[in-house]
Amino acid sequence: MKNDVEIGQHNDTQRQYFASRIKPTMVPRDTPYVQRQIDHVLAALDLAPDARILEIGCGMGRYTIPMARRGVAVEGLDLTPELLERFRSFEGGQDVPLHCTDILDAPASMHGSFDAVIGFFTLHHLHDLEGSFAAMARLLKPNGRVAFLEPNPWNPLYYVQITLSPGMTWEGDKGILKMRRGLISEAMRNAGLEMTEVRRFGFFPPFLANGSAAGKIERVVESIRLLGPVLPFQLFAGRRRTAS
Fold this sequence. Notes:
Structural class: alpha/beta
Number of domains: 1
CATH architecture: 3-Layer(aba) Sandwich
Order of helices and strands: HHEHEHEEHEHHHEHHE
Helix content: 25-40%
CATH topology: Rossmann fold
Strand order of the largest sheet: 3-2-1-4-5-7-6
CATH superfamily: Vaccinia Virus protein VP39
Number of helices: 10
């Protein structure tokens, strides 16, 4: 567990990082690239249609608003008020309940309220993984589930992207190195969760993934066993452990 000073400093850095880097890629759009990532996360949860879901690190609603348009009962949580203000400015953003807080400080009124806690490219920005997972466990109903889509640190193209992209920095995204099965599984276990699945998928960047034939080609690539370890996206799924 990290101390309050470390967490506070980290959170301040993250707020500044995202408030000053409102990138076009963070804007909600119903693209095949986004929809396929949502499909993977929702499939891993395997919840009833009326399940209540909390997305942490929701930002401007890139994934939240498309999910809400599907009829998913999703709420958003984020540290950065500037991003949530932008969230509310997009069509459909006013209809999604939002919470501006650190997951570690989520109010007691939210405890035991959600069937699932999810995130898209969020875990690697969290300073205290074990503490954050423990906070998520408190928000879940009995047998509640978690699912997180993250970069695969074994894919070398992420390091090229961080180095060359104007909107990214190593300081802001170095948590990618922690996105490893063993480390995530241990943090979940110590927080009262158990990992149920790890899945890797994807191949194309957004500008290619949104092409008409990209989905079929990606599925062929994903079936090639030798490429499995370096596919760019990985999904960690888990559930709240029940007392034995």
